[in-house]
Write a structure and sequence with these properties.
Elements lengths: L7 H12 L3 H14 L4 E7 L5 E6 L9 H4 L26 H7 L2 E7 L6 E7 L2 E2 L3 E3 L4 E7 L6 H5 L4 H18 L4 E6 L2 E5 L6 H9 L1 H6 L1 E7 L2 E7 L12 E5 L2 E3 L2 H10 L12 E7 L4 E2 L10 E2 L2 H19 L30 H7 L34 E6 L3 E6 L2 E6 H18 L5 E11 L2 H16 L3 E4 L4 E8 L7 H10 L12 H13 L9 H12 L14 E5 H7 L7
């Protein structure tokens, strides 16, 4: 095949593929153009997750009539004049590719008017082919309407993700820019209902409250640090507010949202030893740096950057976040109230185990706790301190409950050695099998709350919950929309009657990965496992003797007692011969 020059149409579509990956990419480019134009109000409308329509309207400086056609030409920009400008970029856009790329894979209409002009202009582009410029009446600013994205590139259209996933990407993007630009009024509408609306009064904490709720906003810790040439401000979560992934860690550099692994690592290092494994903080941090010290021209979507002195930036972010944590974050108390209904002994110190303690006598002398979910099973051990636990199919012998250590593990003795049971993993398995058994029998009893509890979620998570309401109802959760991003929990499954409804609802949306299809097969099991993980008894929670026995009894009734729903072991076994070797009774190993 001979070498030849690609046609302009093919070249445009190839170039567009580097800039326009999905509907959120279009919104990002148009948002950045509006911010560069000095907009104080930006309105975004989306239909069918952006496939059918995306419209961005701003009140910025606008485009002169005689330059509108040039604005849609490739490599046409007002932000660069010479090569040296590339090494000190202070604007969000600079390549002059966005509008041309979007126009080559959609039907694009742009209407713009400058404040010193009496009329505006309109230009339509279809698959990269521009029409004529028409004079129209329009308010100052710019309107960009993108219809039928990828209609002329069916292969690209085919590989878009589900509407739920694409909507979440748009919601997440606009949410981040609303936090970064609190002086700009943002409005995001999906169909007729607005999913996000900010006042533009400059109060970032108010935006946090609108996104995550007043309680979370109130607890967020403010970060404000400055040293030579560097300034960091924003908010990080205390150690009591965590997420199961890094998706809610947001960094902006000079007003540009970036995805930089080193910055995320620096923040995580600031929480070193303060968070549990696989838990991550929330953060919205805004770094200001000399533009000459950072290169933003390393990625087509401008999402990645390179620092001239990366180690210095890493250290600065880590120190600033750690300082905020140590200065403001209180030491979280260990709560033993909740699902189990038990409380720690005076002073929060677990009771010491007495080998001669007769658990059954202790039970007969104490009244059963009316709040314990295992109180109806505590009679299983009456009459003997032996608790028979025979795990089906696991060949585990009868066990004698010894007690609890570290407020985390149950200790049991069997004829062939010692068993250590992880109370959290074991309770996960118990809750999961009970819930799935009720689900299979189509009989999940629900209990109405005395008063509905409101939960506020960011737009991306709110859209996910909205799509899952029928499945939640099937599992005994009665959840109703109650305004933009707000849901009311009116009923809970009886199995979780003593649990926190807010924690249950948030557990449903935290762990979804971007490529998951929430309404496809096995969603019920994933939802059940997720909720059970969040609501199971935690490590560090002191259990009464009857609760320890009841947990073992419930674990005995499970079909798969040796692992939790996520595959972690619920118990480990130390054979007698291993113990004897450790004590030198059978010689060295």
């Amino acid at each position: 095949m001979s070498i030849h020059i690609l046609s302009p149409e093919i070249a445009s579509q190839i170039a567009a593929g580097e800039v326009v990956e999905r509907p959120a990419s279009v919104i990002k480019e148009l948002l950045e153009n509006a911010l560069d134009a000095g907009a104080h109000s930006i309105s975004i409308s989306v239909l069918e997750a952006g496939r059918r329509l995306m419209e961005v309207v701003d009140d910025g400086c606008g485009i002169p009539v005689d330059q509108l056609e040039l604005a849609l030409a490739r490599h046409a920009t007002s932000k660069l004049n010479q090569v040296s400008d590339l090494y000190s970029i202070s604007t969000l856009g600079f390549r002059g590719e966005a509008l041309a790329s979007i126009g080559s894979v959609s039907r694009l209409t742009i209407i713009s008017r400058t404040s010193d002009s009496d009329v505006g202009a309109r230009l339509q582009v279809e698959a990269g082919i521009s029409g004529s410029v028409d004079v129209v009446s329009a308010p100052p600013g710019t309107l960009v309407r993108v219809q039928d994205l990828f209609y002329n590139v069916p292969a690209r259209l085919k590989f878009l993700k589900t509407d739920t996933t694409e909507r979440r990407a748009v919601d997440t993007l606009v949410t981040r820019y609303a936090l970064a630009y609190p002086h700009v009024r943002f409005k995001l509408s999906e169909g007729k209902a607005p999913s996000l609306q900010t006042s533009g009064d400059g109060d970032q904490r108010a935006i946090l409250a609108a996104l995550y709720g007043v309680e979370v906003s109130r607890q967020m810790l403010e970060v404000l640090a400055e040293e030579e040439g560097l300034k960091l401000k924003g908010f990080i979560s205390p150690t009591s507010i965590t997420r199961s992934n890094r998706r809610e860690i947001t960094f902006f550099i000079n007003g540009r949202w970036v995805q930089d692994t080193s910055l995320t690592t620096a923040l995580n290092n600031a929480y070193h030893t303060l968070l549990m494994v696989a838990r991550y903080p929330m953060a919205a941090l805004f770094l200001e740096i000399d533009p000459a010290e950072v290169d933003v021209n390393v990625h087509p979507a401008k999402a990645e950057v390179r620092f001239r002195n990366q180690d210095r930036i890493f250290s600065f972010v880590q120190r600033a976040a750690r300082r905020a944590l140590l200065a403001y974050a209180p030491i979280p108390p260990i709560s033993t109230q909740g699902l189990w209904g038990s409380s720690a002994p005076q002073g929060g110190v677990p009771e010491q185990f007495d080998p001669a303690w007769n658990f059954s006598q202790e039970l007969s002398e104490q009244n059963e706790s009316p709040f314990s979910p295992y109180s109806h099973l505590s009679s299983a051990g009456t009459g003997s301190s032996l608790v028979p636990v025979s795990l089906p199919g696991a060949e585990v012998p009868l066990l004698r409950l010894v007690g609890q250590i570290g407020s985390t593990y149950l200790v049991a003795e069997g004829p062939d050695g010692l068993y250590l049971i992880d109370q959290h993993a074991a309770h996960e398995r118990v809750l999961f099998e009970k819930l799935m058994s009720q689900h299979e029998n189509k009989n999940i009893p629900s209990q109405t709350l005395l008063s509905p509890i409101s939960v506020q979620l960011p737009p991306a998570q709110a859209s996910l919950i909205q799509d899952q309401l029928p499945i939640l109802a099937h599992f005994g959760f009665h959840v109703e929309p109650f305004g933009p991003g707000i849901f009311q929990v009116r009923a809970m499954p009886v199995l979780f009657a003593h649990a926190d409804p807010v924690a249950a609802l948030r557990a449903l949306v935290e762990d979804f990965e971007e490529d998951e299809r929430p309404l496809q097969s096995e969603i019920e099991a994933r939802l059940a496992g997720r909720v059970c993980k969040r609501l199971a008894v935690k490590a560090g929670q002191v259990l009464s003797p009857e609760e320890q026995r009841s947990l073992l009894n419930d674990l005995e009734a499970c079909n798969s007692p040796r692992t939790c729903p996520h595959g972690r072991p619920t118990m480990i076994h130390l054979p007698v011969d291993v113990l004897e070797r450790q004590f030198g009774r059978k010689g060295a190993r």
